[in-house]
Amino acid sequence: MTAAQAIPRHAESSFDALMNTLVARILAHADAEGFTASAIPGLELVRANSTTACMGSRVYEPALCLIAQGAKTVWLGDRQIDYGPLSCMVSAVPLPILGKVTQASPQTPYLGIKLTIDPQEVTDLILAMGLPVARQPEEELCPEGACGLGHVLADQGMLEALSRLVGLLDTPQDIAILAPLVRREILYRALVGELAPYMRKFAMVDGQTHRMARVIEVLQARFREPLRVGDLADMVSMSESSLFHSFKQVTRMSPLQFQKRLRLHEARRLMLAEGMEAATASYRVGYSSPSHFSREYSRMFGVPPRADVIKLRGDLPAATPASAGR
Predict the structure, then answer these.
(1) Residue 97 — very low, low, confident or very high, per pLDDT cuts 50/70/90?
(2) Nearest Cα to Cα of residue 264 among 325, 216, 318
(3) Domain 257-313 has CATH 3.40.47.10
(4) Domain 3-202's class?
(5) pLDDT tens, position by position, 243-264
């Protein structure tokens, strides 16, 4: 479905006005490129002025994201997803994602919103709505299997709520009282709309996604250490084969590939943000061989570590990952 198909013709003018208002509100508070934290807890604004401004690698915490202007491509394991205006995404678990802005200019920058989601907040709202906490097989709740990343086109109700949340940045005295109410409405809109199958994953305390979230939490805390899949399986009372299958359904990669991504994401950050040499960064994130690190880095990011850092610091186009996560 395209954005035009999602909007009745009689509503196009009001919808366009709503989009223009949202864009203006983001522009007013996202002066710098990249992710900008706001005065509203959990709300970040995103801006890129050109397609060469690579969003790079980032571990996305559970969140709801919206693209208000421009377009981007993300890679999750072996899955490539193209997003444009009105794209609304939900990640139910922390996911290491590669992203690149594909449509932006100084006159019409790429603009987005990221709202972190608290699983308990979703669970409380589901119960308040009188909905059962889902316990059926998650494949029945998600049209894309049990993938931890959902994607739909935002409807007018969702856009209005998100625009009002960003608009509160203009009246900071209202944030403490009104932001929690608008945030709750946003979650409600997601739960009654097309994102519902993904949102309900947050409340499945004995479900596959919840178990994989526990595994991911351990991997995030201990990604530098040698990985023993058997230990992870025991932790969530699963067989190794069941863990492998479930983990790949949720994240589109195996536990080992996930750990590798966490290591490489962190190494990239260390080299860019702290000026660390590639060999030092490789040891810091758990590699015992810098040459092995360099090969895996090149496989994931398309170029060797040093060349990648030079390109990113020089704001040159980053290579498309040819075989990320493999």
Answers:
(1) confident
(2) 325
(3) no
(4) mainly beta
(5) 998 888 888 889 999 999 999 9
